[in-house]
């Protein structure tokens, strides 16, 4: 198998666990991709330093340790590729209407269903970059006092289905590995339209978190920057630089 599966009852963060397991290993060991899945996280992390609520037995918390030939510059594109991979896996599982909120939040029915955290572990050797890709997918969660944004879960959105976390995990891992292979060999170009067809910002009036930028959402360019029509020109927004929201 290409994957070294690590299944844990409890961990601080599956992303942190991947980092620990790979630290100090040489580049030429098994060559397998470590995938860590935990039943709960005590310090789950979200983007922008936020916590990720990770109650036991409810949701999917999974991380993959990926290795790329290339530079850090590829990370913005990778982040969007992972969003596409998660959206496509959910669609294969029968979820209709999956949306992507730039750069890579997974939305369903106007609420956040899953989040992705891409972290750079470091450079293994010249030109070989180690990345940790973490996915949190809300499956059974029905209430949480501590989430500060509008969220959903598969049980809430599709109560008639009996969701199994193992099947969802297998589907997510397969989709991510396929997409990452394609990204590594052919770059971002094949993902642009797959990302754009699920863009929840498209045609919406948007504001940026800093800098006073406002305008209409126009999708992404061929490297994954978001495009905003401010009435005069198309302004490019780089992933990680600022965040966007509907006005
Ligand atoms: C976001 O803020 O949208 C990203 C959330 C990512 C959460 C997942 S859960 C598995 C992995 N381990 C973590 O600590 N975070 C990611």
TrEMBL record:
UniProt keyword terms in alphabetical order: ATP-binding, Biotin, DNA-binding, Ligase, Nucleotide-binding, Repressor, Transcription, Transcription regulation
Specify whether Repressor is a keyword of the entry. yes
**Transmembrane residue ranges:** none
UniProt domain BPL/LPL catalytic: residue ranges: 1-184
Recorded catalytic activity of this chain's protein: biotin + L-lysyl-[protein] + ATP = N(6)-biotinyl-L-lysyl-[protein] + AMP + diphosphate + H(+)
GO MF terms listed in the record are: ATP binding; biotin--[biotin carboxyl-carrier protein] ligase activity; DNA binding
Q: What is its EC number?
A: 6.3.4.15
**GO BP annotations listed:** regulation of DNA-templated transcription
Q: Where does biotin bind?
A: 13-15, 41, 45-47, 112
Is Transcription among the key words of this record?
yes
Q: What class of enzyme is it?
A: ligase
This molecule's function is given as: Acts both as a biotin--[acetyl-CoA-carboxylase] ligase and a biotin-operon repressor. In the presence of ATP, BirA activates biotin to form the BirA-biotinyl-5'-adenylate (BirA-bio-5'-AMP or holoBirA) complex. HoloBirA can either transfer the biotinyl moiety to the biotin carboxyl carrier protein (BCCP) subunit of acetyl-CoA carboxylase, or bind to the biotin operator site and inhibit transcription of the operon.
Similarity-based family: Belongs to the biotin--protein ligase family.
Q: Specify the protein name.
A: Bifunctional ligase/repressor BirA
